[in-house]
């Protein structure tokens, strides 16, 4: 997928003007938040569960070489083939090679974010007939759009949009009446069932990789991944190396976190554990089984201050709770991973240049960090990226100039105190009769265009503190 | 190890700041310490079977208790009737629990996976049920081929009451006790569903539209 991260502001403006999108986002958001809240409420000690989840991930990441070797040995022992891909191009090459060797014509795919990350669809579509089987992914494949949410890829589409797409692609007609959801789902089932039965290769992602047994774990509600990993003659898994967990005991804890955080379910309808290739007496299952393990920038994070980001289990809770995501939607972020997790991952995977706006599209309200099931300190990481930008001399010139000037003054108390006193008085005067907040501020139009600036009370904190001390004494 | 693999691993080790492969025993010790505390888990009052059936219902599955395996054919016939396909065929694997049952005359029974693409219903046998989440645990193989769990629109699962366990971890302990894991272990919690059309839940997205559980109370048989 081509990155459009550098035009974040323009993307956001367009998204905010799109009424259809705003309707779709508004109806989705409340549902996700309420369902998660209900599930967390019903759990005796969700905080302890988050602690444990974070600790499991940290332990695995700190010993990633060990667990990766173990996973590989176990998959190979059970007839599977493990491939290592250092970057996106290598991963595409491996997957295309497997498809070619298998003489594949038709390829199906169940939702995989790692697949999006390596732009797998574009590459596959050049040589094969490719169909996405997750309903949301299928919808956006028809619309020729990238996903806008990591667990609900078509969350930005309304029922009218979907009716139009299905009418056009399944019936070659336009302007049909709005169709009810059950009818649309049944139609997709019918169309896609054929695709499952005739496919040569299935490609899926993985939610967890279990080292002790060499097991790939897939969590879905539709059952598309299960048909995909059972019917075609070749199955390829593509997964980031951070998906590892030590054993099934640890996986149980992670599963308790995932369902509740993603959709508010204790357990998704289908949690599937795939261990190795088809056994000699198995009546079904693929003849060939491959697992492609992807680095693509992950080891960079493993070795720097952003290691905690690799705990991410791709639940989507951070974006569901983000006011910025809720207003502008996933496409605005311009690449595969939207919302707070994307604001950290995208600069990590794609570099700081061209992603300058991402860490700044954040109010630092902290909700993402407080709902994250593996306790990733997202706001801290976002703030940290701003520091990196500053050090790398990225960002807007006025901001840099203003911060430099402020820093220079703040380090000189004799200058700072009188200036602060004058400053607060001026601001107070601007607020004037309206009191409390300013609608416009010279030099800060970009900020006050969309919100009021809360104004100081007319005195500085230090002056107020001194006065209070005097009073108390 | 191939060159690619070697490079892959050395990049990881460099990021972790170590030169060679780590000491597995030290890692195992750290892991044991980490997992020593019991996992935070849901609690319930009442027995595990009731909890399981309640959770299954919450996940939009249906269930009934049957006294003996001789009751399976009649229960399946009712599911077929509800499905509007009274004659079946109903697809089953080689599980001994389903062998030699007396099916009513109008129901056709198909064995193995031939015909599973068009069969309206299937019956498979779970190796465990998890009370915590209302989850059925199924193992792949000739006894219960995986495609039977997903292709037909109506899926009946037989679960022995004695195979109901409390938590996910207990189910895993059982699976591991049976030796190497099969190619597929399916944890099934309710019928197939999607929320991709405006976040309203629709059943039967790709897998079964209906999941019906027969809880077999008889402990003596098989
Ligand atoms: S960062 Fe946390 S909340 Fe966001 S998707 Fe990852 S695990 Fe979920």
From TrEMBL, chain B:
Gene3D superfamilies reported in the protein's UniProt record: NagB/RpiA/CoA transferase-like
Every LUD domain range: 118-216
InterPro entries: FTHF_cligase-like_sf (IPR024185), LUD_dom (IPR003741), NagB/RpiA_transferase-like (IPR037171)
Protein name: Lactate utilization protein C
């Amino acid at each position: 997928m081509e990155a459009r991260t550098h035009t974040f502001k323009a993307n956001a403006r367009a998204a905010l003007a799109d009424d259809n999108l705003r309707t779709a986002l508004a109806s989705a958001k409340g549902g996700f938040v309420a369902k998660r809240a209900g599930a967390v409420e019903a759990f005796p000690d969700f905080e302890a569960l988050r602690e444990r989840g974070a600790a499991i991930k940290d332990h695995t990441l700190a010993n990633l070489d060990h667990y990766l070797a173990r996973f590989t040995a176990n998959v190979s022992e059970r007839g599977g083939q493990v491939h290592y891909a250092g970057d996106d191009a290598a991963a595409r090459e491996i997957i295309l090679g497997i498809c070619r060797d298998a003489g594949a014509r038709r390829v199906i795919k169940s939702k995989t974010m790692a697949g999006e990350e390596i732009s797998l669809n574009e590459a596959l579509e050049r040589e094969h007939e490719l169909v996405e089987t997750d309903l949301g992914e299928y919808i956006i494949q028809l619309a020729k759009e990238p996903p806008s949410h990591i667990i609900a890829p078509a969350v930005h589409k309304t029922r009218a949009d979907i009716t139009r797409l299905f009418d056009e692609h399944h019936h070659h007609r336009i302007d049909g009446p709005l169709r009810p959801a059950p009818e649309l789902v049944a139609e997709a089932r019918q169309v896609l069932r054929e695709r499952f039965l005739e496919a040569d290769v299935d490609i899926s992602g993985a939610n967890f990789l279990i080292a002790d047994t060499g097991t790939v774990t897939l969590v879905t509600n539709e059952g598309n991944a299960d048909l995909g990993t059972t019917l075609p003659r070749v199955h390829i898994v593509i997964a980031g190396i951070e998906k590892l967990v030590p054993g099934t005991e640890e996986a149980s804890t992670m599963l308790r976190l995932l369902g509740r955080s993603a959709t508010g379910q204790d357990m998704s309808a289908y949690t599937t554990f795939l261990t190795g290739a088809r056994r000699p007496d198995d009546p079904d299952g693929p003849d060939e089984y491959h697992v492609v393990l992807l680095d693509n920038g992950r080891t960079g994070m493993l070795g720097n201050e952003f290691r905690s980001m690799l705990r991410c289990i791709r639940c989507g809770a951070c974006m569901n709770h983000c006011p910025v995501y809720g207003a502008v939607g996933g496409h605005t972020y311009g690449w595969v991973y939207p919302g707070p997790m994307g604001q950290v991952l995208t600069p990590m995977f794609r570099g700081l240049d061209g992603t300058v706006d991402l860490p700044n599209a954040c109010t630092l309200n902290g909700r993402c960090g407080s709902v994250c099931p593996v306790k990733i300190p997202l706001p801290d990481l976002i703030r940290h990226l701003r520091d990196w930008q500053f050090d790398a001399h990225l960002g807007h010139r006025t901001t840099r100039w203003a911060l430099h000037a402020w820093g220079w003054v703040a380090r000189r108390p004799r200058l700072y105190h009188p200036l602060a006193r004058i400053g607060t008085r001026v601001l107070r005067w601007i607020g004037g009769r309206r009191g409390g907040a300013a609608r416009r501020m010279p030099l800060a139009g970009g900020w006050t265009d969309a919100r009021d600036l809360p104004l100081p009370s007319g005195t500085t904190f230090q002056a107020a503190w001194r006065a209070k001390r005097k009073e108390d004494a | 190890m191939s060159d690619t693999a070697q490079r892959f691993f050395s990049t990881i080790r460099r990021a972790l700041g170590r030169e060679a492969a780590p000491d597995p025993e030290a890692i195992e010790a750290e892991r044991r310490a980490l997992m020593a505390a019991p996992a935070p888990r849901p609690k319930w009052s009442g027995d595990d079977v009731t909890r399981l059936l309640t959770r299954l219902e919450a996940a939009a599955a249906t269930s009934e208790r049957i006294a003996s395996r001789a009751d399976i054919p009649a229960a399946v016939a009712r599911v077929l009737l509800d499905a509007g396909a009274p004659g079946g065929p109903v697809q089953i694997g080689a599980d001994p629990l389903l062998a030699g049952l007396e099916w009513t005359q109008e129901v056709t029974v198909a064995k193995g996976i031939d015909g599973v693409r068009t069969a309206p219903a299937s019956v498979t046998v779970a190796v465990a049920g998890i009370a915590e989440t209302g989850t059925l645990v199924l193992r792949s193989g000739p006894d219960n081929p995986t495609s039977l769990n997903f292709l037909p629109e109506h899926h009946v699962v037989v679960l022995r009451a004695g195979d109901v366990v409390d938590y996910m971890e207990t189910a895993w302990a059982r699976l591991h006790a049976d030796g190497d894991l099969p190619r597929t272990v399916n944890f099934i919690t309710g019928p197939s569903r999607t929320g991709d059309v405006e976040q309203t839940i629709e059943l039967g997205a790709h897998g079964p539209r209906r999941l019906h559980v027969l809880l077999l109370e008889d402990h003596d048989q098989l």
